[in-house]
Amino acid sequence: MKFPQEFIDRVREATDIVPLISQYVQLRRSGGNHQGLCPFHNEKSPSFSVSEDKQVYYCFGCKASGNVFTFVQNYQGLTFPETIEYLARRASLALPAQTEHSDPSRDLRQTMFKINSLASLFFHQELKKLPVEHEVRKYLETRGLNEELVTTYKIGYAPDSWSDLTQHFEQKRVPIGPAEQLGLIKRRPQDKPGHYDLFRHRVMFPIYSPTGQCLGFGGRVLSKEQQPKYLNSPDSPVFHKGKVFYGLDHSAKFIRTDDEAIVVEGYMDWLALAKVSINNIVATLGTALTPEHAKLIKRYTNKVLLLFDGDEAGRSAAKRSLPILLAEGLFARGLFLPDELDPDEFIAERGAQNLRQLIQSAPDLFELISSEQWLQHKGTPTGKVQLLDEFGPIIGLIPDQRLRRLYVENFANMIGVEPRLVEQSVKKTPQSAAPRPKPIERPAPAADDPTVYDLTKAPRAEVEILNLMLMKEVYLVEALREQVGVEFLHPGTQGVFAKIAEVYGLMPNKFDTLSALLVDRVKPVETITRYITEPYINLSGEAANKLLQDCIKRVKNDFLRSKSKALVSSLRGTGEANPSEQLEQIMNIQRNRRSLNRE
Questions:
Q1: How far, in Å, are 106, 126, 184, 241 from residue 231 at the CA level?
Q2: Rounded to whole angstroms, how far apart are CA atoms 56 and 53?
């Protein structure tokens, strides 16, 4: 959906960047800004600065910068419309009515999110009401899920009854159709009126999106007689089990910080790691890893570790996942737990520290799987051919040519063949199966004006002036008074200067919003967020004013020199015997340049 600019502005004004980023980063005040560890790269000393006045952020280390919109987009991996919806909900702003350009299914999706949220609360409260001696409570206790974990992860219980949730929905006037689509209730046979609950006598694990919307549920049985062991919500407009992970709403920030996602096979595996503070984890919903899963991981990191059970099912799942991960350009590692233990059993028997050590030393996933296959074939010529046919096409899926070449060499050495034989197998990969790496694109500007100003290779003096203009209103007014923007030589800085003048002219009382407005329109964005870095912050008023005047003088001098060169070139090209007018202009320019230099 395309939101009107007026609504986008309302969302921006209703969202304070410091409390927003504080949800994910521990910030402390430092001078006029707030500082913390950057959420976009690993670091031990804080280099991430947030300006409360200007509503922008900047990292001295990785150069990440932007406003509230870019932070949510880049941190949560959302599209711009998803970001607007998330921040609007956070600020309790009602979304604008649908227009002819809006998504007709949006209202249904919003209704479904509300129904799922209501069901999640119902299941959680049902669990809370159970006495300590209840079998559900005892089961959770045996799995190490104490009251704190139950509350944190909103674990619930679907009662062993036919219609408790249905009756709850009726009391809350929940629309029946969407509740049926979500797989929470089902219509009784035709000869009987009403509906009945589909989840009964199960421990319920709500599945949330990174922005906190309840997408669906996974329900685990409490007795061996019940089948299936796990029951997931069916696919719906808000839930596709092959496209979501369990636990991503909690782990997204840790995946960013640790720069790696650990993928486990199910809900209990996820909780087993979470309770020992291994936090950069996601779980598939009892399904195979899909290309959509790989794309979702890549929003947060390009490194992934598969932590699967050491049984045959876990090894087969890892083997199926390998080409999917490599094709998406992810750097994959793998770990099979010994003695066919699952994570919960391993931690109980051997401790969390041992598991951390195994995770730290986990090998490359391709080498792990191919070496196990190699041992099975015992180095026979026919076995080597089978391995070439099996793993050559997988190597061919890797989009990075350098990494592909290294895999060819390593694989050839391992099975004892010439690299050219591996390359022949690699070439068998269908071209359509070997995706080209996609360039990273900045999200489109939020406003109706689609212009993006590219400041690459812009003169330093022009960039300094823009930063000083955004730093303090007095410098902006001085730059406008000098009309220095008309003498900028770079088209990008010309456009930014004109945009600042336009917006400030329309809203002179909203100077502090200029930076947040511009970061969606400038690349690289860090070019206009330097003013919140230390060199600028430490400038005294006198030093900043001197810098501004020096830059203005430099811009004027460069402009005059450029104009003089153009006139000289024109003069040479005319072939006129007495081009007196052009000569007079050149002489005037030289006098003006000398005057500037004397100043």
A1: 27, 19, 11, 11
A2: 8
Helix axes 312-327, 291-298, angle to 10 degrees: 60
334-392 residue pLDDT tens: 999 988 888 989 999 999 999 999 999 999 999 999 988 888 776 788 888 888 888 98
- Among the listed residues 203, 218, 15, the one whose alpha carbon sits nearest the alpha carbon of residue 116: 218
Beta carbons of 156 and 123 less than 8 angstroms apart: yes
Give 295's contacts (C-beta < 8 A, 6+ positions apart): 328
Per DSSP, the three-state class of 426 is helix
For residues 434 and 393, what is the distance between their CA atoms, to the nearest angstrom? Answer: 9
| Burial (CB count within 10 angstroms: exposed 0-12, middle 13-18, buried 19+), residue 346 | buried
**Residue type (1 letter), 489:** L
Give buried/exposed letters for 489-517 (b at 16+ CB in 10 A, else e). Answer: bbebbbbbbebbbebbeeeeeebebbbbb
Give CA–CA dist 202/286, Å, rounded: 16
The CA-based angle 98-103-105, given to 5 degrees, is 100
Residue appearing with tokens 């932590």 = 307
Residue 454 near residue 492 (C-beta atoms within 8 A): yes
| C-alpha–C-alpha distance, residues 234 and 241, integer Å | 8
- Helix residue ranges, H only, 212-290: 248-258, 267-274
Q: Which two tokens stand for residue 10?
A: 């309302």
The pTM assigned to this predicted structure is: 0.70
The whole-angstrom separation of Cα 85 and Cα 98 is: 13
Answer for the pair 247, 281: CB distance below 8 angstroms, yes or no: yes
